[in-house]
TrEMBL record:
Name of the protein described by the UniProt record: Thymidylate kinase
Highest classification ranks of the organism: Eukaryota, Viridiplantae, Streptophyta, Embryophyta, Tracheophyta
Residues of the full protein shown: 59 to 270 of 271
Organism, scientific name: Ananas comosus (Pineapple)
Pathway the protein contributes to: Pyrimidine metabolism; dTTP biosynthesis
Class of the enzyme per the UniProt entry, highest EC level: transferase
Domain Thymidylate kinase-like: 14-189
Similarity-based family: Belongs to the thymidylate kinase family.
GO MF terms, alphabetically ordered: ATP binding; dTMP kinase activity; nucleoside diphosphate kinase activity
Keyword annotations from UniProtKB, A to Z: ATP-binding, Kinase, Nucleotide biosynthesis, Nucleotide-binding, Transferase
Keyword Repeat: no
Recorded GO CC terms: cytosol; mitochondrion; nucleus
Keyword Kinase on entry: yes
Amino acid sequence: NDIRGCSRGSLIVLEGLDRSGKTSQCGNLLAYLQGKGFSVEAWQFPDRSTSVGKMISAYLANESQLDDRTIHLLFSANRWEKRALMENKLKSGTTLIVDRYSYSGVAFSAAKGLNIEWCKAPEVGLIAPDVVVYLDVPPEKAAERGGYGLEKYEQLDFQGKVAEHYHNLLDSSWEIVDGSQSIESVERQLKDLAMHSILTCQRGKPLTNLWS
Ligand code: 2DT
């Protein structure tokens, strides 16, 4: 009875500030789970490959100006356009490791001053993650890590506001990992959390929708 062959995959989301180590940890986790023989893919939002994603990418590169609510809804649309594929993958047994999701959507827009409930509304009905791992790194510490790039939002004062909003979104389903620890230690905790979530899904945990 191969536990890897049956039932659905797990939706594992990593969240955190810029330079929190999310992206490299997603890559490490992908390699680890693939090595164990699981069907697994790494996704990220924004998905810049779609036409909506290209509009988002131009905005982030300061090549276009968009009203705060307009860009918020584009980020959300970028998740909606992937929802059906996401559901198919999960139901066919593939685990998805996702670098940023609706929580980035709310935290970044709320940090600009938009109403939190308004920010959450377009996310309702997207697939709820099985586990959200928050890589917790203080903004000052993240900023020291080789500095920010040139994209919008990559400034210390703004990242501080984003961090506050992430903390307001935290609930009991989140796993907070101290991202200031060694890379190896963070990696070990992520592997344990991912394995636990995958096994829970294999045992029949139902898929649910946001916002729950
Ligand atoms: P990356 O640097 O991870 O590509 O993110 N963002 C992201 C939002 O404002 N709303 C969202 O819904 C998402 C997914 C976070 C690009 C930037 O876009 C922000 C950083």
